[in-house]
Amino acid sequence: MSAVGKSTNIFWQECSVGKLDRQKLLKQKGCVVWITGLSGSGKSTLACTLDQELYSRSKLAYVLDGDNLRHGLNKDLGFSTEDRTENIRRVGEVAKLFADAGLICIASLISPYRKDRDSCRGILPESSFIEVFMNMPLELCEARDPKGLYKLARAGKIKGFTGIDDPYEPPLNCEIEIKQENGVCPSPNAMAGQVVGYLEDKGFLHE
Ligand SMILES: Nc1ncnc2c1ncn2[C@@H]1O[C@H](COP(=O)(O)OS(=O)(=O)O)[C@@H](OP(=O)(O)O)[C@H]1O
Ligand SMILES: Nc1ncnc2c1ncn2[C@@H]1O[C@H](COP(=O)(O)OP(=O)(O)O)[C@@H](O)[C@H]1O
């Protein structure tokens, strides 16, 4: 019996089917691929391309996309520092459950603050949090501006926009960095290939 946060008199319930059993069934190892970067850096593109590539290899993945989760689970949250922290905390907890279920959980969120990403890393089993940094220049993201949000932010119509008037703290020790080569962004398939290569090397694509 213990107390956790505001909950008192709570118990941990164990079931007979464990993570190892599920991984055996799925022929893969559960993990979290956490994609961080500026708006427009290609997070969702990588998440969906990676999801498709894993599916084509009969590997079960699931995408947790920041924008999408803000339509449901996180619709009570805005973009203040506190709300972004709570957003990342919740998604980290959900991602942990998916990884425990044996899935390759692909989380794609700006997740601008280093300490929040590090907290997510801290709740996952050793080596199973794979941080992918979309290291794209702000100028490229702003030039892409697929939703017109940078334009609104520059015009002062959106306050606290990441990269404009709200900070983005790049990872110091990420597992994978996606960046331009000679000023050219790798294709979506090449970006996904980089992540698949890592998952393959580290043994996540086998039980
Ligand atoms: N102020 C501000 N700053 C940054 N982004 C904003 C903002 N307001 C709305 N949006 C839109 O919300 C998407 C980011 O949501 P996230 O949950 O990933 O953000 S965060 O991790 O909590 O910072 C982000 O999606 P992406 O462009 O896919 O990154 C935007 O579409
Ligand atoms: N590797 C890439 N090469 C060329 N264009 C890309 C690439 N990745 C993303 N894009 C384009 O950039 C824009 C932003 O990508 P998106 O995945 O929505 O970014 P984010 O989820 O980080 O906001 C989209 O128009 C997308 O088609």
UniProtKB/TrEMBL annotation:
UniProt keyword annotations, A-Z: Amino-acid biosynthesis, ATP-binding, Cysteine biosynthesis, Kinase, Nucleotide-binding, Transferase
Pathway: Sulfur metabolism; hydrogen sulfide biosynthesis; sulfite from sulfate: step 2/3
A GO cellular component annotation in the UniProt record: cytoplasm
Residue ranges annotated for the APS kinase domain, each copy included: 29-179
One example GO MF annotation: ATP binding
Catalytic activity: adenosine 5'-phosphosulfate + ATP = 3'-phosphoadenylyl sulfate + ADP + H(+)
Listed GO biological process terms: cysteine biosynthetic process; hydrogen sulfide biosynthetic process; sulfate assimilation
E.C. no: 2.7.1.25
Database matches in NCBIfam families: apsK, PRK03846.1
Family, as annotated: Belongs to the APS kinase family.
Function comment: Catalyzes the synthesis of activated sulfate.
Protein name: Adenylyl-sulfate kinase
Organism the protein comes from: Musa balbisiana
The organism's taxonomic lineage, starting at the top: Eukaryota, Viridiplantae, Streptophyta, Embryophyta, Tracheophyta
